[in-house]
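Good day; I would like, with your permission, to put a structural problem before you. I would ask you to consider whether the tokens describe a fold that such a sequence might reasonably adopt. The full record is reproduced below for your convenience:
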Amino acid sequence: MLNVDIKEGGYAPNDARIENVRFSVGPGELVAMIGANGAGKSTTIKAIMGQLPFLDGEAEIKKGIRYSFIPERPVFYEDLTLWEHIEFVAAVEDLEKSDWEPLVQSWLSRFRLERVIHDLPGSFSKGMQQKSMLILAIMSKPSLWIIDEPFMGLDPSAVKLLLETLQEERQRGAGILMCTHVLDTAQRIADRILIMSQGAIYVSGTLSEVLEACDVPDGTLYDCIPEGDL
């Protein structure tokens, strides 16, 4: 689904922010990217999304597949209602109404957003905005999800719904790359974990492989974050 092989990248050839970042995301796999602020996570996401001015290497999404990106801060058009956003995405993605409308209605009901479909998302709470972004992302049935800090500002019920959604998407065969600071959740749900530090991958692998590499086989991911990043 996704293959990243970056020698270096940044905002100019002499301003590398990430180096030697290599990983992949396969079907039905959830890969969690963790690390302190400034570790290089967001820069890596920008490289994948084609938004990094300088890149020596590749960050390739498999050709022909649909993908959805959910940024750390939900982004909406100021003058479009939630329903107008839904119709806009359907038009851009060239989706058949018979395919997307039942799916959208189901998720509107599940997220309890039916009463606000004709309201502007800018007036929503953070949790409602995140749920709205999920609906816009899921309606095209993407094969790959790229999610940046999905749990920020969410209440426990919204977190539970999000985790259930991601699990359902994995069972459907979608690959997921998730950037998060919530280490307990990453430890519990990720198939593989990438710990970034100072613009590079510090350690990667399954949870047991990461803990072994950090010499804390009975520890947690908190024990694996480099001391200089804490």
